[in-house]
Write a structure and sequence with these properties.
Length: 265
Amino acid sequence: MQPDAPLGDGDLGDLDLDGDLELTGRITTASNATFLGSIGDATVVYKPIAGEHPLWDFPDGDLASREAAAYLVSEAFGWNVVPLTWLRGGPMGPGMVQLWQDSDPEQDAVDLVPWEAAPMEGWRRVFDGRDEHNRAVTLIHEDSVALRRMAVFDIVVNNADRKGDHILAMPDGHRHGVDHGLTFHAEHKLRTVLWGWLGEELTADELDGIDRVSAQLAGELGAALGALLTEVEIAALATRCDRLRADGRFPAPRGDMPAVPWPLF
């Protein structure tokens, strides 16, 4: 358990996050206990470890620590993918706390549209299928720098649960990723809706981001992750960075498991 203070270099502005965490509501759509709360003037999401459901395929540690680890890797990338996230005590015991983000409900970074209506410009097709009424549909996502960066981040942290609703479309065009409890497994677990760049070369910016993570794993980042993940998971993280950097391309799905999460949103 980390001290009751955020790790990383996120800009807190005038926020004071050392005060009491007060609950203001519950997010009932989440699969684990998830609450809305406040710390002073800041609105936060609080996920107590006591409210986590055990997962047979993620037996080590807890989901809260993986969420905190995902934020630290996001900070190492320098792309602000994950909102400020840390571990601290709360009304239901220790857990993950994340700064709330006011996303734009009028924007959709990922969408499921009728096959014949799938846009050709500015979007990427992921797959075609049929809905519950046997109508032809297509899963699409934006073709944007922000989402490409998120896809690279997901590959590195081995995100097993990048649903469409885990992408927050911000009013200024930025995209945040949230819900990173199913990350950092030592075995390949990547399940995501962001497959639209399959086989394409990574940009210089994306390669530089991977290099920053690799370099920091040998220093402060590696030390901080040591309190959150197992040695095997950290070694696997380093290996994924090395492999992705050497390949220089967005990978294809592999293995017998589904390539996308379910549900998709």
